[in-house]
Amino acid sequence: MQKIYIAGHRGMVGGAILRRLQARKEAGEALELLTRTHAELDLTNQAAVRDFMQAEKPDVVILAAAKVGGIHANNTYPADFIYENLMIECNVIHQAFAAGVQRLLQLGSSCIYPRAVAQPMKEDALLTGVLEPTNEPYAVAKIAGIKLCESYNRQHGTDYRSVMPTNLYGPGDNFHPENSHVLPALIRRFHEAARDGLEEVVIWGSGKPMREFLHVDDMAEASLFVLELDKATYEANTEPMLSHINVGTGTDISILDLAHMVAKVTGFQGKISNDPSKPDGTMKKLMDVSRLADMGWKARVGLREGIEETYEWFKKSEDLRM
Ligand SMILES: NC(=O)C1=CN([C@@H]2O[C@H](COP(=O)(O)OP(=O)(O)OC[C@H]3O[C@@H](n4cnc5c(N)ncnc54)[C@H](OP(=O)(O)O)[C@@H]3O)[C@@H](O)[C@H]2O)C=CC1
Ligand SMILES: C[C@H]1O[C@H](OP(=O)(O)OP(=O)(O)OC[C@H]2O[C@@H](n3cnc4c(=O)[nH]c(N)nc43)[C@H](O)[C@@H]2O)[C@@H](O)[C@@H](O)C1=O
């Protein structure tokens, strides 16, 4: 029996990972799935995390809990983003180690890479330049997460791995009008405009930035794929001080083209205009996904198909976190 703790199981990614593992358990795999809500266990509380890890002693930890948000939230609450994410990572990774956990997977983000860097971005672009200012505090915390895992591996011989997702979306996303990422924000805004017969929808910034979008089910599958690679394969495809693995689709789209796609899916037929007072952020951040592809994994869900599915979920869901 393998006991797996999924931190952040009520979030978009943690929820998708939990669903996959639950399905495997129902199919007969010997798994014990351990979860705690934020209210039951605040991961920024060191003593609470220590007590939990010591009491439960999981075999494997999946760290999908984090303070997460789009460009506006990152820019408006930088202290929350750096403090909470550093605390969560330090507590979960250190207390997992102290409780004897040998295997751990943590999720970072594509924003760890410098803002002006060769595209597509390879794993070895880490720490080669200046970060994008709109999310620098969050990115610094995510880089610390990678370095925590590498340091425990080097000093203590643990097997702690990191995946770096591109921009994610799908069922369970946060559809808050200001604090969410672009795709859920646009789904909600275009849906409401179509429903209310509005003539115009405004998108933030110039519409020119390019973004790469990965469906959360693909992300959950990739997370478990990396976690379950045998150690020799993982080590042959990474380096001790460059141990993270990019996860993405390898293709991107402009925000304006994305807006047109969401308009089509939601049935909005009016005008799309821009609000140049809002930040563009990084102009391009396309992942080089060859490390993962060489190990045998690639994304499956197409963007249009994924948006249609997410839109159906959005219309049915009563828990939109907004
Ligand atoms: N969404 C995206 O586009 C991307 C996400 N990622 C990374 O993927 C991971 C998962 O993100 P995603 O699923 O989208 O985020 P969500 O916001 O959907 O989920 C995060 C979860 O973490 C929980 N959480 C946050 N703070 C605490 C805390 N102090 N104690 C306990 N639980 C806490 C949240 O609970 P509650 O809501 O109750 O606070 C929530 O359930 C994160 O590491 C994120 O940085 C990386 C790239 C892109
Ligand atoms: C995943 C990644 O997410 C964040 O980075 P980001 O990619 O810049 O995030 P975003 O999804 O919020 O925006 C993408 C683009 O889209 C534009 N845009 C248009 N209209 C809306 C809109 O209505 N909402 C939002 N949020 N953006 C909009 C917006 O101006 C920007 O040009 C990081 O902070 C960090 O958290 C991180 O790692």
TrEMBL record:
Residues the record marks as active site: 138 (proton donor/acceptor)
E.C. no: 1.1.1.271
UniProtKB keywords: Isomerase, Multifunctional enzyme, NADP, Oxidoreductase
Binding-site residues for substrate, renumbered to this chain: 189, 204, 211, 280
Stretches assigned to the NAD-dependent epimerase/dehydratase domain: 4-231
InterPro entries: Epimerase_deHydtase (IPR001509), GDP_fucose/colitose_synth (IPR028614), NAD(P)-bd_dom_sf (IPR036291)
Chain positions of site Important for catalytic activity: 109, 111
GO molecular function: GDP-L-fucose synthase activity; isomerase activity; NADP+ binding
Keyword Magnesium recorded: no
SUPFAM superfamilies: NAD(P)-binding Rossmann-fold domains
Residues binding NADP(+), per UniProt: 8-14, 107-110, 142, 165-168, 181
Gene3D superfamilies documented for this protein: NAD(P)-binding Rossmann-like Domain, UDP-galactose 4-epimerase, domain 1
Name used for this protein in its record: GDP-L-fucose synthase
The organism of origin for this protein: Ruegeria marina
Lineage: Bacteria, Pseudomonadati, Pseudomonadota, Alphaproteobacteria, Rhodobacterales
Gene that this polypeptide is encoded by: fcl
